[in-house]
Amino acid sequence: MATGDELIEALFGAARARGPVETALGLGAAAIAIGFVWRARFALAIRVVSADLALTSGIDVRRLDLRYLLAFALTVAMGLRYLGVLLMGSLVIIPASTARYLARSMAGVQAIAVVLAVAAMLAGELLAPRLHAAPGPVAIVAAAVMFFVALLVRPSPAGASAPRLQDLP
């Protein structure tokens, strides 16, 4: 039977200090996943549109799907280790949403999302000891702050007016 501390760690990630080996493994896993997605970004975009189109473009769809699933599994495993079950989804969704709001192209969305996620995790790791909190929740708060800052600083498109609060449903 799991103790209360083990349950909290599973839900919100490990609050304990990480050694140099665990940190290096985490950084290495992140680099592998980011490198794969960046290198295969065009093939992945074609694959999302149509498997048949990807096949006719010379892309080995089965191999691409396997590599994508392995990168995804690696990302989720590391996220669960550092963030826990409840916060993992937030680190996937918030940087991607922020990047989608700021970027003008698919490559821009990918690059901005990666930078924001890494910045949020670094903020969590650096600020957590000073705040006497677990790094996972601090990282998610940092990602949320970046999202709201992006909402405030992004200029509206030319000729378009920003929605007013009273116009929202």
Question: Any descriptors?
Answer:
169 residues; globular; mainly alpha; 0% strand
List the helices and strands in order: HHHHHHHH
Mean pLDDT: 83
Biggest β-sheet description: none
Low-confidence stretches: none
Q: Report the oligomer.
A: single chain
Question: What shape does the CA trace take?
Answer: globular
Count, helices: 8
Share in β-strands: under 5%
Separation, N- and C-terminal Cα atoms: 46 Å
Task: Write up what this structure looks like.
- The termini are far apart.
- Helix 6 (85-102) crosses helix 7, helix 6 (85-102) packs parallel to helix 8 and helix 7 (106-131) packs across helix 8.
- Helix content is 76%, strand content 0%.
- The chain has helices at residues 4-12, 20-39, 41-49, 51-56, 61-82, 85-102, 106-131, 135-153.
- The protein is mainly α and 169 residues long.
Please describe the topology of this protein.
Layout: H1 4-12, H2 20-39, H3 41-49, H4 51-56, H5 61-82, H6 85-102, H7 106-131, H8 135-153
Helix pairs in contact: 2-5, 6-7, 6-8, 7-8
Brief summary of the model shown:
With 169 residues, the chain is mostly helical. It is built from eight helices and no strands.
